[in-house]
Amino acid sequence: MSSDNTIASHQSMQDNKNLRVSFTTDNEPDYTNYYAPLSQNYISNPTDMPSSVDYTSFQRTVSTIPNLDSPYGIPISNDINDQSRSHDSEKVVEVSPNERYVRLNTLLGKGAYKVVYKAIDREEGYEVAWNTMQAMQSPNNKDLEHEIQILKSVRHPNIIAFHDAWYGDNEFVFITELMTSGTLREYIRKLAPLPNLKIIKRWSRQILKGLAYLHGHNPPIIHRDIKCDNIFINGAHGEVKIGDMGTAEMKLGKKYTLIGTPEFMAPEMYEEQGYNEKVDIYAFGMCLLEMATGEYPYGECKNAAQIYKKVSSGIKPACLSRVQNPEVLRVIENCLSNEHERMSAQEILEHSFLAVEPDVVLLAADPDNIHLTLQVVFKGMDKLSVKFDFNVETDTAEEVVREMIEEQVLPERYQHHITKEINRILRDIEKPTESEQAEQVRRSVWRRESDIRNELDRTKEELNHATDRVLEVEQKCNDFESRAQAAESRYKNALRSLKELEELKYASSTEDTSMANLSLNNATDEREREKLVNHILDEYSDDTDISVFVADCAQASHRGADKAHEWARKLQNQDIMTVGDLRDLHDEDWAGIGLTVFALRALKNMLKGKNLAANSVLTPSSPPPTTPLSSSSLPPTYPSQPTSTM
Predict the structure, then answer these.
(1) Catalytically annotated residue among 30, 48, 143, 225
(2) Residues 385 and 439 both lie in one domain
(3) Which range marks the domain in which residue 396 is found?
(4) Do 523 and 644 lie in a common domain?
(5) Which end of the chain is more exposed for a tag (fewer CB within 10 A), N or C?
(6) Neighbours of 622 (CB within 10 A)
(7) Is the pLDDT of residue 631 over 70?
(8) Shared domain check, 499 and 616
(9) pLDDT in tens, 556-613
């Protein structure tokens, strides 16, 4: 088929609504995926099917109105009771022609072309699913009967049972087994982020068993629309069953009908050479891909035309690169390979990835548990089993299993698993009785309590030793701190004495030295000497106003009243209002006052005592001054007229 004819053929399918899929080219945005749960036998002339059809449902007891949300106006009864409203009572609203099945007013699900209700099988007494779909025209009775017989003949634990069907009033009704947990695709979302490998294996085995059953018919039955949306699950028991058998058809030679879901359709379904049951294996590979990644195959494509181009070009879905398990990836890649290279459903079931590990069971044992009879049971392999004797005193699990493998009684791939299971049984046999277990538990508890008490005593002793060491260290720290404080005090006293001596020495060596220093040097009376020193070392009180202190400092340093006013203003701008505020300043605070270096030194020296300048200090015979003056640590000044007459 040429590429032009291929595109034209797929474009013409857009109006053929008996098919599951239609295509448009990339530049035609109005793509529609027409879905029909049953095969084209129910529509006699699909190419002439009108765009809309007046429809009245076959019902005996309930009137209907069209559902505007449905594309074909499938009618829904006014008395429909949504299952989510559990408080509403269920009641019978319709009866089958043979009066065996009755439909309840409980809606289980609604798609674009099919509505499913809950129903009752009055002969068997269990719930079933009442499926209704619209049929445009009366089908050929022989074809319909043939199709129904095929569906009824399918009986397998992993395929939804088809019980009955009838046609009337433009409506096709069929009764199927009821599954309680919805589709496999919905259930995968519930196990977010992803189902584990054990679950994927269990689901895959059940799907493949159903496909192996269908493909095992003569001629084989091809489902043609395997996907997670058409596989249903009973979550209470983990049962997985293939549903939507309406597209199934017996293979009488190659099939050419284009039917299915684009993402799950094998490349050969798009070609004119025809296809066989291997298209179901391709679709299963896509289902396994969705189970392993949680992503819909070819989700990167925007329409069916893009999917068709990728499939025809052999481009695999993008999510295939996100499969983590290498064994799963190998199985998927085989399913998506060329139809001649694909394994059959039975071959995949026998693949090591899906092989069910056997069980080892204890059948019998003597009173002393020495001579045992064991059996290896292989599940899913026609109940194949291997029975053998085991002597606990002379045999080992490794030797017995290796011997059975050498005799080709057991497959080698199960060697490790069966060995482990035999050793597990041996450990269980060696377990003590309940009374022995109780005694062991009691002794174990006593030992644990004794160990805990001993450990607690050791911990208390260590804590006491640690506490004593802490107290000892604290005492040493206190001693060191006291000695450090005493050393610091002696150091400060020494510095102060040294500074005073240096200042006194400096004052006595200058021409401008004060009369107080001369008086101190010349004093012969010890009391007068002591009195003068006390005047020198006298300090200002903390509450002395800063302006008084600054005025004395300016006078002592031979500065005028304007300088005293300037210094006082700068100090008051820094909230220094008393001599106590000035003493509280740190060394780094002095630099931020804004005074000159000379003014700062004069103020600092003034804090240590009275002025030793000649103009401000009296001789020992003079009366004491009434106003405190600057410190003895003030740097020397040099007046223009010496005041000393010496």
Answers:
(1) 225
(2) no
(3) 367-429
(4) yes
(5) C
(6) 11
(7) no
(8) no
(9) 888 888 888 888 988 888 889 998 888 888 777 887 888 888 888 888 888 765 443 4
